Automatic annotation (TrEMBL):
Keyword match Membrane: yes
Origin: domain of life: Bacteria
Transmembrane stretches, start-end: 12-32, 44-61, 68-87, 99-120
Record's keyword terms, sorted: Membrane, Transmembrane, Transmembrane helix
Residues of the VanZ-like domain: 53-113
Protein known as: VanZ family protein
Keyword Coiled coil belongs to the record: no
InterPro entries per UniProt: VanZ-like
Length: 124
């Protein structure tokens, strides 16, 4: 694969990862009445949103150690939960932080163990 293709692929992955991080931040910091709800439990919403974002982030930064990928998710979700004290209709919950953190970690681990080897084999 040429260097140009690698740079282009990285740019695409980075754009998607950044967009997902922005979506999570936005949904975490809007008033409760303005946030869309899926009908699933809050913990499941957190787990799935962070799972997808963790997986895409891991595929973006393929050579970054797992711990360095996971720590920003742990910190960001803690900050988002803490700031919710100030947001009408929101309340910080340890369970939401845990679901977010575990979702990101599982997404990173599954991307590294299953998806990344397939992508490498396909030459992406």
């Amino acid at each position: 694969m040429s260097k140009e293709m690698v740079r282009r692929d990285f740019s695409v992955w980075l754009t998607v990862a950044a967009a997902l991080w922005i979506v999570i931040a936005g949904l975490s910091l809007v008033p409760g009445s303005e946030r869309p709800h899926t009908g699933y439990s809050s913990d499941m919403e957190h787990l799935m949103a962070y799972f997808g974002t963790g997986a895409i982030t891991a595929l973006t930064f393929r050579s970054t150690p797992t711990i360095w990928l996971a720590l920003p998710f742990f910190a960001a979700s803690a900050i988002f939960e803490f700031v919710q004290i100030l947001i009408p209709g929101r309340s910080p919950l340890f369970e939401n932080w845990l679901a977010s953190s575990l979702g990101a970690l599982f997404g990173i681990l599954i991307a590294r163990a299953i998806v990344q080897p397939v992508i490498v084999r396909l030459g992406w």
